[in-house]
TrEMBL record:
The lineage of its organism: Bacteria, Bacillati, Actinomycetota, Actinomycetes, Micrococcales. Gene3D superfamilies: DD-peptidase/beta-lactamase superfamily. This is Beta-lactamase family protein. Residues 32-268 form the Beta-lactamase-related domain. InterPro entries: AmpC-like, Beta-lactam-related, Beta-lactam/transpept-like. Pfam families: Beta-lactamase (PF00144).
């Protein structure tokens, strides 16, 4: 079967003690989904392919859609400087020069990421995770870090870029970010398992995530710090992520011109909330979004025409965070690469 490589990768992750692995692939005329593992290490309830999971930075792709809808409506331009729109850019957080909307979307503003100021060590992890952060507080934290002029125009991945975009959306829409995303993405596509600011603590179909802290297993999952974040706050499901990508690439969310801007790489393979990747059997590029937490990883791919999607989420084995074991980051990056490779090979086999 075309999905054999993907199924093998999923079982390999389970053999390395993943809590759960969920995947779904779609192609013209068919789809395949599978799950391994459990929702909860205590109850041992089996995981299902459509269970809810935190999708981390896949959120950024959704946020980028909302921002590009502003562009479609003529409320702001991609090359417009945003310094005057953001109170934080005029008090405390001082950009080294004009910063455009495109630079925020493409991580080329040079702005540091607030996480560098948020977490100082392992003892901060639990109290910080249980703390709800406003977007204004995110900007305050960012202002404690150096913003170097030499970094403007270079790729520097930063959650603070998307926090700033969230503030712009709130200002121009006059609504909280979570409501904007619901109006722009969730409701138009009928993403029934996708939420932005709902803690979902008791949701029976939520896969729980785990880390170890000083040798003790701790439940991580959906934290207060994540809720409502334009960079990493969405909880969704593998089928909903595929629905989102299909809706995006078939033109149901933004104009053809805005989608072309989103797909066009700015620095390296990264465009506006999307990575461009290898070509399919027709010679067209494919695009992907990815999200990583200490306890979850998601990789989601789509063909340029929206006819093929493939998404996988892994709930990682309970393991130390990078504060205790820096090598964990390298292992997580390896898993993410393996996920993407398995998804790409599956799409190659299905491509017509």
């Amino acid at each position: 079967m075309a999905t054999d490589t993907l199924d093998y990768a999923m079982t390999s992750f389970m053999n390395e003690d993943a809590v759960a692995v969920l995947a779904e692939v779609r192609w013209p005329g068919g789809e395949w989904s599978k799950s391994y593992g459990v929702r909860d290490l205590d109850s041992k309830e089996p995981a299902r392919p459509d269970d809810r999971v935190p999708v981390a930075s896949v959120t950024k792709t959704m946020t980028a859609v909302s921002v590009l809808k502003l562009v479609d409506e003529g409320l702001i331009g991609l090359e417009d400087p945003v310094n005057g729109m953001l109170e934080a850019f005029q008090a405390g957080l001082m950009p080294p020069g004009p910063i455009t909307l495109r630079q925020l979307l493409s991580h080329t503003s040079g702005m540091p990421s607030y996480g560098e100021a948020l977490y100082k060590g392992i003892d901060d992890l639990v109290p910080v995770s249980n703390q709800r952060l406003s977007l204004h507080r995110v900007m305050e934290l960012t202002s404690t870090l150096p913003w170097e002029a030499r970094m403007v125009g270079s790729f520097r991945y930063s959650d603070s870029n998307y926090a700033a975009l969230g503030l712009i959306l709130e200002k121009l829409r006059g609504k909280p970010f979570a409501e904007v995303l619901r109006n722009d993405v969730v409701e138009p596509l009928g993403l029934v398992k996708t939420t932005v600011d709902d803690p979902l603590v008791a949701a029976p179909d939520l896969v729980k995530g785990y880390v170890t802290i000083k040798g003790h297993r701790e439940e991580a999952g959906v934290t207060q710090e994540q809720l409502g974040s334009p960079s990493h706050g969405v909880v969704s499901s593998v089928p909903d992520v595929n629905d989102f990508l299909a809706g995006l690439f078939t033109g149901r969310l933004i104009s053809a011109g805005a989608l072309a801007e989103m797909k066009r790489p700015v620095v390296g393979p990264y465009g506006l909330g999307l990575f461009e990747w290898s070509e399919d059997c027709t010679g067209a590029p494919r695009y992907f979004a990815r999200g990583d937490f200490f306890d979850f990883q998601t990789v989601a791919l789509s063909s340029a025409d929206g006819r093929y999607q493939a998404t996988m989420t892994v709930a990682s084995p309970p393991a130390p965070t990078p504060f205790e074991d820096p090598d964990v980051e390298r292992e997580r990056a390896l898993w993410s690469d393996q996920m993407r490779s398995a998804l790409l090979e599956t799409m190659d086999r299905l491509c017509q």
